Amino acid sequence: MDVLALTTYDDAPFMDQQITALERRGVSFERLTVPGQVSASESRSPSDYLRYFPQVIREARNGYDLLHAHYGLTAPMALAQRRLPVVLTLWGTDLNGPAGPLTRVCAPRCDEVVVMTDGMKRTLGSDCTVIPFGIDLDLFRPRDRERARARVGWAADEHHVLFPYSPERTVKNYPRAKQIVAAVDHHVDRPVNLQVVHGVDHETVPTYMNAADALLLTSDSEGSPTSVKEALACNLPVVSLDVGDVRQRLAGVEPSRVATSDGELVRSLVEVLERGDRSNGRAAAEKVSQSVTIDRLLDVYERAVGHEIDVERPEPAVRRR
Q1: Measuring CA to CA, which residue among 34, 38, 73, 72 is closest to residue 55?
Q2: pTM of the predicted model, to two decimals?
Q3: What does each of the 321 residues of the chain score in pLDDT, given as a tens digit?
Q4: Distance (Å, rounded) from C-alpha 160 to C-alpha 194?
């Protein structure tokens, strides 16, 4: 199966992992990224998106079976071509942010729509399938904390709280995370460090997660935050605001907490740091493993093209009695 993937970001790790996993199953991809420059503090201009229309229409003529549009802002271009069935994946901010009205107009016109959470499904208000981006459980797994700290150069006798985002991404609300950690530092017996980790090779992220004592999520909004699922896979406790599907992901995970105020964030983080335990999150992460989510996405592809596709499907595991 040959797929044309439309993207606004050509280096999003969670999308890269999904495409790589699909390629291992026998799906071939060609990516086409919106032109122009984008960063945490800079957005593309309308003219960049206008230039994208003819590029997509031309490329769609090159013998693909399916067009997979990632992020709502690529939906108009995906629909402008009439040759290929369209699968649209929404990430969260494209539905809840300024692009939401455009996304809601385009989504019902696509053959299949994938969203990250049940909340996004309710917000969209039209047919869609909930499939969060999956996690590579071979890469993200529990490792020895002291060895991980030695590798990243963190003090062994201090607390380390992970903030795995660029401070420039305003939606992640770094100032709030900084205030929470400063307050927590007055309530525990060891120094508390807010460790900002971004722009590193994705393969090194599990080392930082295993070196940390907790992950702190203070985002103003989220879809299905990948960092939370990665933390679960590493048994790293999570303290988070009640955004996206975090409450669902952390159900039954100890120690981890979902908070609705700064006071709750402080109390929860103090509790987690004082306990000093790793979580039981690995079992919860298995529900969103890469293999599980890819199987479900292949089902979506088959519905979009209207027939079975010739790809590798792992044999179901045999249960032992």
Answers
A1: 34
A2: 0.85
A3: 999 999 998 778 889 999 999 999 999 999 999 998 776 666 788 899 999 999 999 999 999 999 999 999 999 999 999 999 999 999 988 998 889 999 999 999 999 999 999 999 999 999 999 999 999 999 999 999 999 999 999 999 999 999 999 999 999 999 999 999 999 999 999 999 999 999 899 999 999 999 999 999 999 989 899 999 999 999 999 999 999 999 999 999 999 999 999 999 999 999 999 999 999 999 999 999 999 999 999 999 999 999 998 887 765 544 333
A4: 6
Two structure tokens written together for 301: 């592809």
